[in-house]
Automatic annotation (TrEMBL):
InterPro entries: CK1_Ser-Thr_kinase, DUF7477, Kinase-like_dom_sf, Prot_kinase_dom, Ser/Thr_kinase_AS. This is non-specific serine/threonine protein kinase. It comes from the Eukaryota. The lineage of its organism: Eukaryota, Viridiplantae, Streptophyta, Embryophyta, Tracheophyta. Residues 1-178 form the Protein kinase domain.
């Protein structure tokens, strides 16, 4: 698809997600197959629709109106592997940021016809795709895309769990690509109404996309081990140097937490410590050769 057509899809999709999120729900499975245009010949033939709410979940509590609590269950995955957010791969509670990250992958797919992690097969497909998503930079991911798509990807992949998206600002990223009304392949009524009602976000210097900090070092040698457990108290440590591992483990043991998951990348480690492992004690030893290089 042309950049201008994908930009129209982008702004209207953001508007649709804003309306869904305002109802307290996240879609949970944003992908190209779930976007449809109206019936040909009807007044809505150029109107974009988002379908399939089978994986939708609440991001906001019905009674209190507060954001749902954060949880992480690595044994549970919800979504479509190709377009799922990294947080979904890691079993984290879904929130508004995940719909927007999936939308970013959808837009890049529509532009390029392919995503860098397509082609993985086998039982560990989800792990390999997640590792690729975490290691690839926005510059490389969007090297053949117009700048607004890179800015959008950078913005949504750096959002916090309970952060409220700035929808008008996200829509405004694509202003330069939107053609005059008579040339637009789809209607963008929702996006235009959002802009008129709330005002477009500005590109102030102090509001530039934050430097990407989530990825850490490329996950060239990262393996995860876990057991399925009921929801439990967890403590997550990442990008931990070997010299500081024992401090985190001993502190966790003092609080009744024991190691349930471990990951390694070069000389950095990630740990998940749980209160519901059922262990009463635990012995660990740091090996200088965690895995053979060709594993």
């Amino acid at each position: 698809m042309t950049p201008s057509m994908v930009a129209c899809i982008a702004v209207e999709a953001i508007s649709i997600l804003e309306k869904l999120h305002a109802k307290g729900f996240v879609h949970g499975d944003v992908k190209p197959e779930n976007f449809l245009l109206g019936q040909p010949g009807s007044p809505d033939e150029k109107k974009l629709f988002l379908i399939d709410l089978g994986l939708a979940s609440r991001w906001k509590e019905t009674s209190s109106g507060q954001h749902v609590d954060y949880d992480q269950r690595p044994d549970i995955f919800r979504g479509t592997i190709r377009y799922a957010s990294v947080h979904a791969h890691l079993g984290r509670t879904g929130s508004r940021r995940d719909d927007l990250e999936s939308l970013a992958y959808t837009l890049i797919f529509l532009l390029r016809g392919r995503l860098p992690w397509q082609g993985y097969q086998g039982e560990n497909k989800s792990f390999l795709v997640c590792k690729k998503k975490m290691s690839i930079s926005p510059d490389l991911m969007c090297c053949y895309c117009a700048p607004p798509f890179k800015l959008f990807l950078e913005t949504v992949t750096n959002m916090k769990f309970d952060e409220e998206p700035n929808y008008p600002k996200l829509i405004s990223l694509f202003d330069e690509l939107i053609e005059p009304q008579h040339l637009r392949p789809i209607r963008i009524d929702g996006a235009l109404k959002a802009g008129q009602k709330r005002g477009r976000g500005s590109h102030d210097e102090d509001e530039q996309p934050r430097k990407k900090v989530r990825l850490g070092s490329p996950a060239n040698q990262w393996i995860s081990v876990y057991n399925a457990k009921r929801p439990m108290k967890q403590r997550y440590h990442y990008n931990v140097a070997e010299a500081r591992l024992h401090q985190h483990i001993e502190k966790g043991n003092e609080d009744g937490l024991f190691i349930s998951s471990v990951a390694s990348s070069a000389n950095l480690w990630a740990l998940i410590m749980d209160a519901g492992t059922g262990f009463t004690s635990q012995v660990y030893e740091l090996s200088q050769i965690f895995l053979h290089k060709v594993y």
